Description:
- By secondary structure, the chain is mainly beta.
- It has a single domain, classed as TonB-dependent receptor, beta-barrel domain (Maltoporin, Chain A), CATH 2.40.170.20.
- 4% of the residues lie in helices and 58% in strands.
- The protein has a 22-stranded antiparallel β-barrel. A 5-stranded mixed β-sheet has the order 1-7-8-5-6. It has a 3-stranded antiparallel β-sheet with strand order 2-3-4, with no helix packed on it.
- Strand 22 and strand 23 form a beta hairpin.
- The longest helix is centred in the N-terminal third of the chain and has 19 residues, at 6-24.
- The model is unreliable at 1-43 (pLDDT under 50).
Amino acid sequence: MHPPLSPIRTVSVFLALTGSLFAQENSQLAPTIVEAERIDDEPRAVSVVSEESLELFQTTTFSGLSGIVPGFNVVSADSRGYGQVVVMRGSTNTLFFGSPALGLYIDDVPLGDADTYPSSLLDLAEVRVHRGPQGPYFGRNGAAGMVEMFTPRPGDEMKTTLTAEYGSYDHVGLGLNTSGPLGGDFSYSLQLFHDERDGYIRNAFYGNEADDRESNGGLLNLFWNPSDDFELRLRFYAEQVNDGSQRLSSLFSPDSFTDFSDFPGATDLERYQLSLHSRKDFSWGKVETISSYQTWELDPSTVDLDLSFPNPANGFADSRSNITQQQDLVSNELRFTSSEDATPFTWKAGFFQMWIENEGLASRQLFPGFVEDTNFSIDQLNLAAYGNLSWQATDRLALDAGLRVDYHESEIDRVQSDPIPGDDVVRGDEDDWFVSPVLGLTYGITPAVDAFVRTSLGNKPAGFSAYSDNPALAQFDREENWSNEIGLQYDCPAYDLRVGLRAFWDQIDDYQFNQSVPRSSDFIVLNADEVTSRGVELDLAWAPVEPVTVRASFGYVNAEFDSYADPFAPGTFYDGNDVPFVPEYTGSTGIRYDFESGFYAQTSVRVSGPTKFDAANTTTFTQDAYVLWDAEIGYATERFSVALYGRNLLDEEYYTFINPQIFAGSPGDPQVFGVRVRTTF
């Protein structure tokens, strides 16, 4: 399954012709395309994280959203997203090869597998996190939720911001953000960044820091507004990463920030995105097209699997892994949206196409002289149509219904070779159709209190895992999530108070789950028969007096296996056990006080509950609850700011990821301090 594919070609040409026809018609433009309407006023399970909230919680990474958004968590192995697990209400992606449960859009551009999600955040105007299946609302499938990130758009005047930061471990951060008109009908926005630091982990074997980090990149947007009702946008993003070893240490080490690896690790990757966006306004609504090409290349990711040097105490172990992998993605989306003023019906509909190709070579040395080479290619094609309709039946009652229809095709070509004569070959393909409906109701109890209920189906497509010698184990089935939620939202502008309370119950069939195959190096995706996830979520935003801002959230998730028998250990059942990677609860509280003189002080606390990292819920592979405390003081004017910050002030020791296969974990960030200076002109 290699492009050009006829369905891709057809959809791409159609979208290109559509955009061209719109460009020829001359009417009027709505200048703020990407920002769209804010979702603050919708009582659905949507968390809107503003630029101010990101700064309050010192959020600079994708995983840093954990705790800020109820029900959301990122299990990070500190390898720039490779092998990370993104959690939403108990639904997760698998470590390798499965589709994400939580989709991600950045400036309306959909990303591919969770491996390719960026670890560091650009300067963002807003983040929206939608919980629950989102199939009828987006082109990219959001089986358990969707994250939207929006970068700032240019204003009517030229504006440039420079940022410089220095901190613990010789951390240096530099940033440029500039935007404005270019003359005529053109405008632009540009972000450039450089970030580096010394390692947190000390390698006692070599006597150096193992996990140095360095990244460089930028985002360029060019806008053309020939009339008030039409816009074209060309977007280009690039990032280059040159990191040291993955942050791993033995679970039995007396110091989680020390290892004895004799094989220096590295994570080097590049990512590029190129997209073309168009929007045309009509009297009845708007039409948008987004076409993108993305490439992500990991070359290489090297890891010492025994985290030591050969010696009699470890049986002269010398195991290591070297992975190179590339993902290419082509997507096209066509959206139709009714006018915001349309009553009593508003609607949205669209068509979506995405093609993904994953190619890679994984070389694993199990012991000296025995190396397994796994060469694989996995292609995926997704075609979808989606739509939703909202009906304001009365002044108090609103109904929302949506439907998504998907066609998904997957193909694998995989060959493994080792010193034993004969190659292990896995080849196959599968295709599937599935439907994802949504039905919701919102009722205004009082002018300040809304109640809502929602039921929906989410689907994660079937696929193949490349790390299996057995063709029967390489294929996994589609996962289906029946999600239900009920909630209340209280909004009182007179007291600057907003509170959202929700409860959810998800029934997940054929839950996609990773497991190693005993007595082999295979690591596969399989299906647990049934998982139930239930919980409650709380959001609070409050400004009790003018200089004080308070933000708080809490999410409790009980995700358990209802039916899961270990296929490799007859008679072993994990029914009633917690699902791995899902914290029992997460929460956060942030407070900021702005003085009239321009000085400010802010502090925030985040908590994460106990997290299991294997289906057996082994104590050794469990991270207990922990608390992170951050604080910042500074001085800010319209043109200049300086800040002193501290993160993890209690110097809490914890793991963000535990790997049961090698008895190792990724320790979380230690205590750090820094200073940041910013000027705008």
